[in-house]
UniProtKB/TrEMBL annotation:
Start and end residues of each GCVT N-terminal domain: 475-758
Protein name as annotated: Pyruvate dehydrogenase phosphatase regulatory subunit, mitochondrial
Family: Belongs to the GcvT family.
Localization per record: Mitochondrion matrix
Keywords: Mitochondrion, Transit peptide
Species of the source: Astatotilapia calliptera
Gene: PDPR
Keyword ATP-binding: no
Domain FAD dependent oxidoreductase central: residue ranges: 419-473
Source organism, top-level taxon: Eukaryota
InterPro entries reported for this sequence: FAD-dep_OxRdtase, FAD/NAD-bd_sf, FAO_M, GcvT/YgfZ/DmdA, GcvT/YgfZ_C, GcvT_C, GCVT_N, TrmE/GcvT-like
Length: 893
């Protein structure tokens, strides 16, 4: 770590050229650096001398804040035989130079929860261990320089209040009262979080280590993990520079080294993160020393943060042009010793002086540059890796590792103990990524975008701009020339909507809004075409698996995994959940019985790795049972609309009316010249139409034929925004948005998809039976906004609090404008207030139907009507029960 003393130098940027000349006179920061406590971090003396145990139940790699938190929480949950290995000294990695801010102002709820827990944990650690942690409840101020930022802070405030976190939206003059240095002239308001705190990170690290050691965790410093040994897909041992340790579990908390460590083993593990340099400045004590309880300032529009530090200030930021760290071929010490870079820091310094002009005369103590790891989607990486059983990861903290470590360590420990944490951590689950996000080039480009994004304003439906065009459908170029605008999911490009020729849209930057977006009419026209004629949407990104066997094994496995009955005649499609032991959705999919012993499984795009590992985990080791990921083999076209059957009938010479091809059936057909197209009568929207699964070599031909024949039926391209509007107005829940591992089919009105009496016992059956007996305590509802002006009011997105009779009753999970109802529709969960003993109470239809509902959008409440069923007028398709149809009608072709 490099740092320079800037004694008697003022902060003004005009000094920078001179300061740079002083570079050579800098001294290197050693040991604990800026955190002044004299105590050495080692827990057990010079532990290198201690012999390495030959065996342990769990080996944790990394003695930073994350590794020690995992050790602490595992020990608290009763685990014994835990060994923590650290290549240097405890807390010698990024934790050593962490800025020490523990704030709950995080973008998503699970992150707020983790930070909230960490804050309470760090507050009581001193009492628990006797180790001083430097905990000071300073509170923090998130500033808004413009109305859009203010809206996003108000949205955050609504969300935090739902979690019971104390926060207030305040005026600029109140900011001035709370902070003596802040220039408020360009501010429109702020969010005040009184419970936020600052700590000394190495001391918290030390306290966690002391507490863990007290509970029997063996901590070995100066021991470097070289590789993890794997046999038959399971962790068996860890090889270190001091010998090997046999173990059942390995937890990689190796921070920025976790990527390389994953690659170092013979069985490679993808840990998609990449290091970037991260800077902050320290001043000497100010003339009038800043009181220790002065609030932390987070000025995202200025890209800076600042906290009190030893009478002076510590201020860092997230610059627009970050510097990724290239680790290959460099030793670890070299990576840690990052050079200061005043030119690079200059924009942040200027922003700081704009925000706190009186700092002009402050003296610089030090410019710190320390590596931190960032991930492709700004969320940390948690959980068991998909390929290796027993290999867990907790890393990639995106500059919030201190704030997250307590909560994240707790959830990971719960996960390892009970099979799943007590909160929904899907947004952090390492299984949301696969190998494809682990290429070095992808990571490098993406982290260059991620680091500045941390402080950029996020509006509904923003997209990453880097790492694009990685996975595309064969129709990509064809659709692009027809005006497709793209979004990315799991590396796959998906059309959002199609800009008609001659229509100008705003540039990406200008189109950012919390209000009515510029694509409103375009998507409206696509929806209208889906309702009245026919549209085609390229949905090739869907996950697709084929499960086959020589005997009944495939059916037996699916009957065990799925809540619905899969023992259906060949050609039937079954919508079903794959549930966990608690009855929650691990996967929501459509399964097609292709033949007696083969099935086609269609899952959401981002479930590719998660669903694969779920099936694999439960699959018997039987050479006659085979699972294949065929996602890349098929292009999927969704033909939506009443004229879809006319288009397909013309192309296949087969009648496609509901009489001949009822809902939820699949037939292999020829379409144009192409054979072997899997045609399925479903659209994922509740509208009539068909999904076509086309072997990729035929994709362009089939698409061209469909578009050509479709002309006379008014066909046009459509995108996912139209699909979203259609499915939400029909009350269709989507996995990852509305459904998760904590939602059961009974809670979202899908009991009809659970076959309790089928021959095979399925995972989650017991839990569902119990829930049916006890009554569900929350319910998925549709909320139609009233008195909401689409032109002028803020639009809902997701995560908005829902009030019933003025009492908090739940939150929304997704929302869309319904062009049919000409209203906004939100989907979400509501529950009744807790019972007398603080226990959840069963929800009744009366509770739902009789309440006065409101949806809180950025602090403004809009009345809403809650519904348990969609408006029947939205369904135009003439339905026939598949049981009524003679199977013989469906064979052939
Ligand atoms: C300048 C800066 C300021 C920050 N400020 C804040 C803040 O104010 N608030 C906040 O919440 N977060 C902040 N962060 C982020 C936070 O510091 C990090 O996210 C956190 O410290 C990461 O902790 P960790 O345990 O994952 O990593 P580390 O602290 O880097 O620990 C990883 C450990 O693993 C060890 N290791 C690696 N490989 C091996 C191996 N093969 N064998 C044995 N040991 C190994 C390393 O030696 C290291 O000690 C900041 C980061 C930086 C860079």
């Amino acid at each position: 770590m490099s740092s320079c003393v800037r004694s008697s130098r003022a902060l003004s940027p005009v000094m920078l050229p001179r300061l740079r000349l002083l570079h050579q006179t800098g001294y290197r920061l050693v040991g604990r650096g800026l955190w002044t406590s004299p105590r050495c971090l080692t827990v057990s003396g010079d532990s290198q001398l201690l012999p390495l145990p030959r065996q342990a139940r769990v080996v944790i790699c990394g003695g930073g804040i994350v590794g020690t938190s995992v050790a602490y929480h595992l020990a608290r949950l009763g685990w014994t035989d835990i060994v923590l290995l650290e290549q240097g000294r405890l807390g010698a990695g990024t934790t050593r130079l962490c800025a020490g801010i523990v704030s709950v102002a995080k973008p998503i709820s699970i992150e707020c929860q983790m930070a909230n827990y960490s804050s309470s944990l760090y507050q009581q650690l001193e009492e628990e261990t006797g180790v001083k942690t430097g905990y000071v409840k300073t509170g923090s101020l998130c500033l808004a320089q413009n109305q859009d930022r203010f809206i996003s802070l108000k949205r955050l405030a609504s969300r935090l209040k739902v979690m019971g976190i104390n926060c207030n939206i305040i005026k600029p003059k109140e900011v001035a009262k709370l902070h003596p240095l802040v220039n408020i002239h360009d501010l429109v308001g702020a969010l005040h979080l009184p419970e936020d705190a600052v700590v000394s990170p190495p001391d918290v690290n030390h306290a966690l280590a002391v507490a863990s050691a007290g509970q029997g965790v063996q901590i070995m410093e100066r021991t470097s993990v070289q590789q993890v040994l794997v046999e038959k897909g399971c962790v068996t041992a860890v090889e270190t520079d001091r010998g090997s340790i046999k173990c059942e579990y390995f937890v990689s908390c190796a921070g920025q080294w976790a990527y390389e460590l994953g690659q170092a083993s013979e069985t490679k593990v993808s840990v998609p993160l990449h290091g970037c340099e991260h800077f902050y400045l320290l001043t000497k004590p100010l003339q009038e020393p800043l009181p220790p309880k002065t609030p932390v300032v987070i000025d995202m529009d200025g890209r800076i943060y600042a906290r009190p530090w030893q009478g002076g200030l510590l201020s860092g930021g997230f610059e627009k042009n970050p510097k990724p760290i290239f680790t290959e071929g460099r030793n670890q010490l070299e990576i840690q010793n990052m050079q200061e870079d005043w030119d690079h820091f200059e924009p942040m310094l200027s922003a700081l002086l704009r925000r706190m002009p009186s700092l002009e005369s402050a003296e610089i103590h030090q410019l710190v540059n320390c590596p931190e790891s960032f991930t492709p989607d700004m969320r940390c990486l948690m959980g068991e890796t998909p390929g290796v059983s027993g290999y867990y990861v907790l890393a990639g903290m995106n500059s919030s590792g201190l704030a997250f470590a307590g909560g994240a360590g707790k959830y990971l420990a719960e996960w390892m103990t009970y099979g799943y944490p007590t909160a929904n951590v899907w947004p952090l689950d390492i299984k949301r990524f696969g190998n494809l996000q682990s290429s070095r080039t992808f990571l490098r480009h993406r982290v260059m975008e991620v680091m500045p994004l941390l402080y950029e304003l996020k509006v509904p439906r923003w997209d990453f701009q880097t790492g694009r065009q990685l996975r595309t459908s064969p129709l990509y170029d064809r659709l692009d020339t027809q005006g497709a605008r793209w979004m990315e999911k799991h590396g796959f490009e998906r059309p959002k909507y199609f800009v008609p020729p001659g229509k100008d849209l705003l540039s990406l930057d200008q189109s950012k809004t919390f209000y009515k977006p510029d694509w409103f009419d375009i998507v409206g026209a696509e929806v209208k075409c889906c309702k009245e004629a026919v549209c085609v949407i390229d949905m090739s990104s869907f996950t697709k698996f084929e499960l086959t066997s020589t005997g009944d094994q495939a059916l037996e496995l699916l009957q065990h995994l799925c809540a619905n009955d899969l023992d259906v005649p060949v050609g039937h499609i079954v919508h079903t959940g794959m549930l966990n032991e608690r009855g929650g959705y691990e996967n929501d999919c459509s399964v097609v019985r292709l033949s007696k012993n083969s099935f086609f499984i269609i899952s959401p795009t981002d479930q590719q790795v998660h669903c694969w590992s779920w099936i694999k985990k439960h699959m018997p080791n039987d050479p006659h049972l085979h699972l294949e990921d065929v996602s890349w083999k098929y292009t999927a076209l969704n033909l939506i609309g009443p004229r879809a059957m006319d288009v397909l009938a013309e192309l296949s010479y087969v009648s496609m009316t509901p009489d001949h091809f009822p809902s939820m059936f699949c037939k292999e057909m020829s379409v144009g010249y192409a054979n072997g197209i899997r045609v399925m009568s479903m659209t994922h929207t509740g509208e009539p139409g068909f999904m076509l699964y086309i072997p990729i070599e035929y994709a362009l031909h089939v698409y061209n034929e469909v578009m050509s024949v479709g002309q006379k039926y008014g066909i046009r391209n459509a995108g996912y925004y139209a699909l979203r509007s259609l499915r939400i107005e029909k009350f269709f829940a989507f996995w990852g948005q509305d459904l998760d591992a904590f939602t059961t089919p009974l809670e979202c009105g899908r009991e009809f998809r659970v076959k309790f009496d089928k021959d095979t016992d399925f995972i989650g059956r017991e839990a569902l039976l119990q829930q049916r007996q006890d009554g569900v305590t929350r319910r998925f509802v549709m909320l139609v906004l009233e008195d909401h002006d689409t032109e002028l009011d803020l639009w809902p997105w997701w995560g908005e609090p829902v009030y019933r009779n003025d009492q908090l009753a739940g939150t929304t999970t997704s929302s869309a404008y319904s062009y049919t109802l000409e209203r906004h529709v939100c989907l979400g969960f509501v529950s009744p207030p807790l019972g007398p003993e603080g226990l959840p109470t069963a929800i009744t239809p009366d509770f739902i139907n009789r309440g006065d509902y409101e949806v809180d959008i950025a602090g403004q409440r809009y009345p809403a009507k809650a519904k348990l069923y969609p408006f029947s007028s939205l369904f135009t398709q003439q339905k026939r029960r598949k049981d009524d149809i003679e199977l013989s009608n469906l064979q052939g072709k």
